[in-house]
Specification:
- The complex is a heterodimer of chains A (116) and B (112).
- Chain A has 116 residues and is an all-beta fold.
- Chain A has no helices and eleven strands.
- Chain A has strands spanning 5-7, 10-13, 19-24, 31-37, 43-50, 53-57, 65-68, 75-79, 88-95, 106-107, 111-115.
- In chain A, the strands form two sheets. In chain A, strands 2, 4, 5, 6, 9, 10 and 11 form a seven-stranded mixed β-sheet that branches.
- In chain A, β5 and β6 form a beta hairpin.
- In chain B, the strands form two sheets. In chain B, strands 2, 4, 5, 9, 10 and 11 form a six-stranded mixed β-sheet that branches.
- Chain B has strands at residues 4-7, 10-14, 19-25, 32-38, 44-51, 56-59, 62-67, 72-77, 86-94, 99-102, 106-111.
- Chain B is built from no helices and eleven strands.
- Chain B is globular and about 45 Å long.
- The chains are: A mainly beta (116), B mainly beta (112).
Chain lengths: 116, 112
């Protein structure tokens, strides 16, 4: 069964460093998403991406975050200058379409980011 | 704005017991609802997806029901096992349907 793949599973970085989290969405999917879960809290929406553009973003997704689809298979989340509070599990998701009745999002296993 | 609430926050039951987890949502204009399982420090495992046209969905010992009009869903786990111990999350599309809103989850512990 097709699945969303995320790498690495665990990323450790120093405060102030840049990190790139990588995702390979399901191959025929056109819509891509990032979510975040701080330990003990809810999974929160960060951003959605379609046709090489951000289609929606939350208030969490500020200027230190960016997303990119650098080639036909990868979807990345970059955090420019990490802060301690960026420590969280980051989930990538993809969906075939965003049409209301068919927006079923498939989630990856997540990347745990630890900022020291 | 869609809000998702899950009750109870935590549940501890002896092995073999049947149990029900509850999820409620404020905006009933949803087209589907998903239940996920999350083990400590791990990712999300999709358990069941219910389309709005369905009233329930079954997978093995799991049965999820959906009542859109009342903004409620339940996840029924039959004959619970210690391996069922995990956090169970409910999630619905929200806003412009570009995102999914999650509940905080119910942490289940099944005692051998």
């Amino acid at each position: 069964e097709p699945e969303v793949t995320q790498t690495p599973s665990h990323q450790v970085t120093q405060m102030g460093q840049e990190v790139i989290l990588r995702c390979v969405p399901i191959s025929n999917h056109l819509y891509f998403y990032w979510y975040r879960q701080i330990l003990g809290q809810k999974v929160e929406f960060l951003v959605s991406f379609y046709n090489n553009e951000i289609s929606e973003k939350s208030e969490i997704f500020d200027d230190q975050f960016s997303v990119e689809r650098p080639d036909g298979s990868n979807f990345t989340l970059k955090i420019r200058s990490t802060k301690l509070e960026d420590s969280a599990m980051y989930f990538c998701a993809s969906s075939e379409e965003a049409a209301i009745a068919k927006n079923i999002q498939y989630f990856g296993a997540g990347t745990r980011l630890s900022v020291l | 704005k869609q809000e998702v609430t899950q009750i109870p926050a935590a549940l501890s039951v002896p092995e073999g017991e049947n149990l029900v987890l509850n999820c409620s949502f404020t905006d009933s204009a949803i087209y589907n609802l998903q239940w996920f399982r999350q083990d400590p420090g791990k990712g999300l495992t999709s358990l069941l997806l219910i389309q709005s046209s369905q009233r329930e969905q079954t997978s093995g010992r799991l049965n999820a029901s959906l009542d859109k009009s009342s903004g409620r869903s339940t996840l029924y786990i039959a004959a619970s096992q210690p391996g069922d111990s995990a956090t169970y999350l409910c999630a619905v599309p929200s806003g412009g349907y570009q995102k999914v809103t999650f509940g905080i989850g119910t942490k289940l512990q099944v005692i051998p």
